[in-house]
Design goal:
Number of strands: 10
CATH topology of the largest domain: Rossmann fold
Strand order of the largest sheet: 4-3-1-2-9-10
Radius of gyration: 17 Å
Shape: globular
Helix content: 40-55%
Number of domains: 2
Bound molecules: D-glutamic acid
Distance between the termini: 26 Å
CATH class of the largest domain: Alpha Beta
CATH architecture of the largest domain: 3-Layer(aba) Sandwich
Strand content: 15-25%
Structural class: alpha/beta
Largest sheet: 6 strands, parallel
Amino acid sequence: MQKAIGVMDSGVGGLTAVKQIQQMLPNENIIYFGDSLRMPYGNRTYQEVVEYANAIIEFLEKKEVKAIVIACNTVSSQITKLQAKVPLFGIVEYGCQEAAEVAKGEKTIGLIATVATVKSGIYEKTMKKIAPDKKIIANDSSRLPKVINSQMENAILLYMLIKESIDPIYKEDVQTLILGCSHFPIIEKEIKTLYPSLRLIDPAVRQIKELKKYLEQNHMQNDKQGAKYTHLYTTADMFEYVASIKRLELKLNKLEEVKLFLND
Ligand code: DGL
């Protein structure tokens, strides 16, 4: 059996990475882990985020994945503290690379992300290395990921929280906005409706392009035609995933609730 690609997130957000994998790497099997029970990670301490992420990495490694995509920006902000035997693909670097490339003449780049991601300053630090002429203007949102995770059908709440997140930075004349939380590309349609002129960056697109390159260069691609499975594990109610799976038009064979005890 060919090894799968592991994808981890705090909840449904990483399904945006799954979508990219299914499109760009159609032969790859996927094992997804969403820690809905403990989300939002963005409101937790970095120590908790690292502890939970390491437990998920261990879970995925036991399933013998060949690489792990860290779809969660909050976890990626702490990537240097994670322990893994397989290659880890963080997301922040790719979001910055993509934004720097597409927003060539622009001096400021907008960012919406969780409180923990914004507080870590990881996007600013990374952008400084990639494109020192660009300034990140960030705003955090502590409630929007949770609403996307479990109440996406509540349109009034959704639109209100999108405005609350983007309005403060939109006023500063930002033309390009990094969706610095994996949950946000799921509601790209609603963001576009409110801000039609904004160029939105989903960092998962570049992240999976780079993963594809890596697999090719290291001869790690699945050579069998067509993926056999996408398995999804979650620590909370699996029904939370249904709306996002439908919206992203994902192919899925298994949805399972698991108890992940940190000291297993
Ligand atoms: N998935 C997380 C991220 O990309 C956001 C959701 C959370 O706070 O758990 O940062």
